[in-house]
């Protein structure tokens, strides 16, 4: 069967490509510079000796011209490549594809965003005929032979549409040329009223020495980076610098790496050219062989892209490993400022874990400490899995000479649990907060017998709150009770409260979530036999007073642990407080 060709509505396609492919109207400058540079490459490939150059000239009445002394186009080439959307010389010459920046055959259409017509005058390096081509966004074009003298190369003329005149003004054009083309290997000149300015700079950042790059970054971002990391990939031909930021950055902050393809800016806000853990650096990278998307604002995320990304990540890793040896002071500063990023790296990579772990700081029952100092004094370490559990035990733990590390912050639990893999003499145990109080000193048989009725009363009063009572001797003496729970009590209590106050439907929703996600929490209330008030409560013969003190010990412990008090617990606290106030006012010395 004879296959048919799709019918194309040319106007629709041109509109689609020119107005919707690119995010910024200014990209026409990039596309024209790129065509000029590619044409110069093409002429050099013909074996002709000349100094390549691209000139952008600004005229009054918002018109510009872009002239290159590249290959130019023959009439046949105009018909084949210029007048045919999607055709590109740069794809035809297969072996040369790597030399050119363009490849899709749509770049010129970006000019239709800002101009109603593209006029192009050209003389091919292959034959002598000067030609003029004029194209319109409705898909029509004309070709005319010119009799006048024209040098080899091409000039494109554009006149601004009413809404885009500012793009054709000197200051705006110079900003766009600098943004996209300042590192191109061919001189780009900007001319107005005979005044000529060279827009290209001789050395791009990825060819600078460490000191040059440092000064360059400092001038560009107004802050001195901590250091410059050279980046290079074997595959994909990537080369660049990563500068270490001198301030901490949040994991959520979007990265903005500046990426060039064959020296032409591709994007100044690329997020993923480095691995996600590398958020303590910003990078400027040039690559030769990654493939751009058609809009030329990102790379195609193919296998090569991820290989390059891994290789660049490896450069950062190697740098840190060497730095630890060569400049311990700077290494230490980087770790201090960027611990969040480096902790993520260490969790994922054994080699880096071994390198960093001693330098990381953790919150401990002795205050914030560097791991090297923690293990110097403690070979047995307890890690609290949540911040809540850490807070429950921190103060008491210190008084018992117990080293408890807060594993509640991102990665800290994993980092601590891994510790014996690099420090064999250290044992690390995850804290079981319910069992924590049983580490304290037991009472003698006599003391236990004496405290028994008090504990029984406590169990009786608090049994309805899933709380069991015990008694031990521990430091510090000024803490009467220690309240420990094995669950996220905040959530559970809040859920119970909401359920009580909500309408039937919502209460059911809360109950389902709560029962599905959380096992009912248990708690332990450990009285401190070392505390004088607890002793008085045990020894008191007044049953009412005993009861009120248990209720107050319990509710106070909840408050101190930042737990939400239920309605019944609030009532309990009020009742016992009022009772003590009354007793105070009724005391003989107050009455008199
Ligand atoms: N200044 C120029 N000198 C010589 N040939 C040119 C010039 N500008 C455009 N051309 C020709 O026109 C073709 C189409 O150009 P266009 O900018 O649309 O696409 P491209 O550069 O090939 O690819 P891309 O869409 O990736 O930019 C080119 O392949 C080239 O053959």
From TrEMBL:
InterPro entries for this protein: HATPase_C_sf, Hsp90_fam, Hsp90_N, Ribosomal_Su5_D2-typ_SF
UniProt-listed SUPFAM superfamilies: ATPase domain of HSP90 chaperone/DNA topoisomerase II/histidine kinase, Ribosomal protein S5 domain 2-like
| Any GO MF annotation of the entry | ATP-dependent protein folding chaperone
User: Which keywords describe this protein according to UniProt?
Assistant: ATP-binding, Chaperone, Nucleotide-binding
Q: Where does ATP bind?
A: 31, 35, 68, 154
Instruction: Report any Pfam family annotated for this entry.
Output: HSP90
Task: Spell out the family assignment given in the record's similarity comment.
Answer: Belongs to the heat shock protein 90 family.
Q: What is this protein called?
A: HSP90 family protein
């Amino acid at each position: 069967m004879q296959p048919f060709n799709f019918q194309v509505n040319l106007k629709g396609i041109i509109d689609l490509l020119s107005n919707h492919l690119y995010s910024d109207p200014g990209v026409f400058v990039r596309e024209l510079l790129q065509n000029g540079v590619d044409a110069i490459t093409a002429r050099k490939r013909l074996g002709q000796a000349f100094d390549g150059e691209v000139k952008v000239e600004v005229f009054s009445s918002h018109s510009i011209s872009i002239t290159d002394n590249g290959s130019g186009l023959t009439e046949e080439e105009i018909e084949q490549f210029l007048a045919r959307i999607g055709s590109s010389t740069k794809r035809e010459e297969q072996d040369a594809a790597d030399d050119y920046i363009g490849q899709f055959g749509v770049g010129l259409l970006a000019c239709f965003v800002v101009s109603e017509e593209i006029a192009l005058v050209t003389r091919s390096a292959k034959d002598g005929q000067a030609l003029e081509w004029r194209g319109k966004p409705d898909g029509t074009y004309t070709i005319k032979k010119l009799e006048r003298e024209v040098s080899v190369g091409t000039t494109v003329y554009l006149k601004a549409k009413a809404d885009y005149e500012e793009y054709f003004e000197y200051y705006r054009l110079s900003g766009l040329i600098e943004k996209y083309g300042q590192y191109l290997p061919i001189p780009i000149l900007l001319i107005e009223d005979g005044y000529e300015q060279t827009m290209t700079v001789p050395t791009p950042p990825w060819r600078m020495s460490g000191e040059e790059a440092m000064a360059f970054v400092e001038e560009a971002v107004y802050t001195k980076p901590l250091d410059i990391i050279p980046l290079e990939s074997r595959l994909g031909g990537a080369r660049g610098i990563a500068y270490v930021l001198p301030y901490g950055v949040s994991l959520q902050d979007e990265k903005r790496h500046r990426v060039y393809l064959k020296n032409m800016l591709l994007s100044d806000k690329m997020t993923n050219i480095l691995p996600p853990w590398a958020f303590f650096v910003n990078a400027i990278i040039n690559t030769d062989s990654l493939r751009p998307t058609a809009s030329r604002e990102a790379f195609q995320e193919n296998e090569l892209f991820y290989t390059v990304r891994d290789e660049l990540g490896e450069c950062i890793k190697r740098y840190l490993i060497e730095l630890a040896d060569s400049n311990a002071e700077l290494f230490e500063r980087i770790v201090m400022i960027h611990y969040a990023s480096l902790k993520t790296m260490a969790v994922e990579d054994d080699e880096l874990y071994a390198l960093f772990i001693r330098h990381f700081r953790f919150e401990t029952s002795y205050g914030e400490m560097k791991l090297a100092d923690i293990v110097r004094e403690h070979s047995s370490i307890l890690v609290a899995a949540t911040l809540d559990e850490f807070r429950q035990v921190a103060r008491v733990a210190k008084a018992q000479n117990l080293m408890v590390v807060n594993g509640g912050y991102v990665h800290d639990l994993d980092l601590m649990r891994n510790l014996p893999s690099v420090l064999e003499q250290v044992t690390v145990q995850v804290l079981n907060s319910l069992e924590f109080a049983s580490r304290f000193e037991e009472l003698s048989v006599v003391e236990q017998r004496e405290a028994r009725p008090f504990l029984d009363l406590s169990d009786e009063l608090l049994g309805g709150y899933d709380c069991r009572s015990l008694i031990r001797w521990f430091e510090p003496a000024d803490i009467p009770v220690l309240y420990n729970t094995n669950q996220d009590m905040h959530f559970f209590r809040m859920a119970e409260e909401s359920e009580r106050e909500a309408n039937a439907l919502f209460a059911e929703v809360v109950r389902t979530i709560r029962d599905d996600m959380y096992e009912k929490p248990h708690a332990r209330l450990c009285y401190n036999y070392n505390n004088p008030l607890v002793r008085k409560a045990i020894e008191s013969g007044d049953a009412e007073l005993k009861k009120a003190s248990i209720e107050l010990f319990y509710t106070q412990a909840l408050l101190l642990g930042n737990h939400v008090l239920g309605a019944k617990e609030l009532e309990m606290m009020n009742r016992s407080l009022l009772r003590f106030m009354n007793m105070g006012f009724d005391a003989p010395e107050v009455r008199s």
